[in-house]
Amino acid sequence: MHSSQLIKAPDPPLPRRSRSPLGSAIFFAFRTCVQSLAFLNSSESNLPLMALELWVEFFEDLEQIRGRSRNTIMAYRRDLELYEEYTNSSRDIPGFYIFMKKRQLSARSQARVISSLRTYFKFIESHGKQVPELRELKAPKVKVGLPKVLTPEEFRRLYIACETDDASRTSRNRLTLLLLYGLGCRVSELISLNLQDYHETDSWLAVVGKGNKERAVPLTELLNTELKAYLANARPHLMREKTTSILINDRGHRPSRVDIWRWLAAWSVRAGFDEPVSPHRFRHGCATALLEAGADLRSIQMLLGHASIQTTQIYTTVTTKNLTETIDQHHPLSRLKDDVTT
Question: Against a cut of 0.90, is the pTM above it?
Answer without folding.
Answer: no
